[in-house]
Specification:
With 158 residues, the chain is of the alpha+beta class. Helix content is 25%, strand content 36%.
């Protein structure tokens, strides 16, 4: 991690890694946590392979959905790692996404209490990192990590 360029977040999710992975890779589950509530998410394309599309829309009222993310997966290592970027669209076109271009690495590791869930978001320059932080990276990505944890933890048999 480069502190001048990167932002990170870590959370222990009290669910098995396979459950967290499924919440990431099943579009119907991803739609339940990917965007901070009360906004709603619709996953248009989720092609979990290097070069595959990651396209999602969001809605403020549940009726009209607008573009949220048009990205491309760079690496997918089952149960371990997902890497995607919005600097390349789902059709492999160079992009200039608002508010910032980024590459996100999601890492899942076993933890005695469940899953060690880590997010590393890389930016191309310090200004982009600062803009993303100022726009609420910790709150936004932290909120959705919490929503992911709530979903994953609710599906674990007690």
């Amino acid at each position: 991690m480069n502190p001048d360029l990167d932002l990170a977040l870590e959370r222990i999710i009290r669910a098995p890694r396979a459950t967290v992975w499924r919440a990431w890779t099943d579009p119907s589950r991803l739609e339940q946590w990917w965007i901070p509530a009360p906004y709603r998410c619709r996953v248009d394309r989720l092609e979990l392979r290097p070069g595959g599309a990651f396209v999602a829309r969001m809605s403020d009222g549940g009726t009209e959905f607008v573009p949220h993310l048009d990205a491309c997966f760079l690496a997918v290592d089952e149960l371990e790692r997902i890497v995607f970027t919005n600097a390349i669209t789902s059709t492999w076109r160079p992009a200039n996404p608002a508010p910032v271009a980024m590459t996100a690495t999601i890492t899942l590791n076993d933890h005695p209490d469940g899953t060690d869930y880590r997010i590393l978001v890389r930016h191309g320059d310090p200004e982009s990192r600062a803009r993303h932080e100022k726009l609420g990276f910790a709150e936004g990505w932290g909120t959705v990590a919490g929503q992911l944890a709530a979903l994953a933890e609710s599906t674990v048999p007690r």
